[in-house]
Write a structure and sequence with these properties.
single chain; 365 residues; Neuraminidase; four-stranded antiparallel sheet
């Protein structure tokens, strides 16, 4: 009876060790990031300011003497001219089937929209002042507007065909970024640039940054706002998490990192540590920073959607649009080799002890 109890206990120990062994074996393979770079535009003229949504990349292009909006569809590998008016259309943004941009055909800057489903262009703003730098999320378009003598943030809702003034402070608010109900922007009411946010669901404005240095050029996705920050004597990337009310320094390199954009757990930005600007990415889920581009010339103005990053690139003499696609692969290398070998030795030793005891027990019986 005593032998039987001992054997059952030992079997349980061996089973636990083997389960730990298998868990470590399956769960500790290193996932490495692989980057595939694609040249999107191949025109000798300048293409800049890319934006991306799903398979569609939009940018402005000067091949027709004036500035036009073009689109490249990754699913069909086709480029399409979106605007044909002889004036300038620039700074596009895209969400779903809708492309928004600024347009100066009326003698000032207005916001226009092109619907890819209906192939129709619509004038969004008609005020005689300037409206520019549009961004879009769902049915909402936000933009700068200087009709009140300073720069304010305004919003146009396509679902209700209504325009709303978002900011009313007499100082300057600019560079809006929108995701869902939240609009982030830079604001100089405190004598320097800070980041503020307006929540459409509660009609409340919140100051995000309080540091006395300059914070600028925000990008928002979900609960995360990223921005430039000058508090350390160079430009760093910082992030504010709305769900925890915490601010985090993302980059610490002594060179300049700037123009961040955020999508889910990924933050992409320009980085000047190698002399010319490169694309870098910081993954919040792994707390790792990775260099995306290695070409010796400049890569600028990033935009991200999912695993795709688009940017301006000067490697061919002018400004063109390039894209880097990210994917993970298993290296097959286990981070806990030493632990696994120890577990294997222990389990092998215990199995041998069990075998000897069992053999001896049978001999005695």
């Amino acid at each position: 009876m005593k032998h039987r109890v001992t054997m059952v206990t030992n079997r349980k120990v061996i089973t636990i060790i083997l389960m730990l062994f298998l868990f470590l074996l399956m769960s500790t393979n290193i996932l490495a990031l692989t980057i595939t770079e694609t040249r999107i535009t191949n025109n000798v003229y300048t293409q800049t300011r890319p934006a991306i949504y799903n398979d569609r990349i939009v940018y402005h292009d000067v091949r027709n003497v004036n500035v036009d909006i073009y689109m490249y569809d990754l699913s069909t590998s086709t480029e399409t001219q979106i605007t044909t008016n002889a004036s300038d259309q620039s700074d596009p943004a895209i969400y779903g089937n809708k492309i928004v941009y600024q347009d100066n055909r009326n003698g000032n800057q207005d916001i226009y929209m092109y619907d890819l489903l209906t192939s129709t262009e619509t004038q969004i703003t008609a005020n005689v002042s300037n409206q520019n730098t549009p961004m879009i999320s769902g049915t909402r378009i936000v933009y700068n507007d200087n009709r009140n003598g300073n720069n304010d943030i305004y919003m146009y809702d396509l679902s209700t065909s209504t325009e709303t003034r978002i900011t009313t402070n007499a100082s300057t608010q600019s560079v809006p970024s929108i995701d869902g109900n939240r609009i982030a922007y830079e604001d100089n009411r405190n004598g320097h640039w800070d980041i503020y946010m307006y929540d459409l669901s509660t009609s409340t404005e919140t100051r995000i940054t309080t540091n006395a240095s300059t914070q600028s050029v925000p990008s928002i996705y979900g609960n995360r706002i990223v921005f430039n920050d000058f508090r350390n004597g160079n430009t760093d990337i910082y992030m504010y998490d709305l769900s925890t009310s915490t601010e985090t320094q993302i980059t610490a390199n002594t060179s300049n990192q700037q123009r961040p954009v955020v999508y889910a757990n990924r933050i992409v930005y320009e980085d000047y540590r190698n002399g010319t600007p490169d694309m870098y990415i910081y993954d919040l889920s792994t707390s790792t920073e990775t260099q995306i581009t290695t070409n010796a010339l400049s890569q600028l103005q990033p935009a991200i959607y999912g695993d795709r990053i688009v940017y301006e690139d000067t490697r061919n003499g002018g400004f063109e649009i390039y894209m880097s696609t990210l994917s993970n692969y298993s290296t097959g290398v286990n981070k806990n080799i030493a632990a696994l070998m120890s577990l294997f030795a222990i389990s092998s030793g215990l199995l041998m002890v069990l075998y000897v005891r069992r053999k001896k027990a049978y001999t005695l019986s």
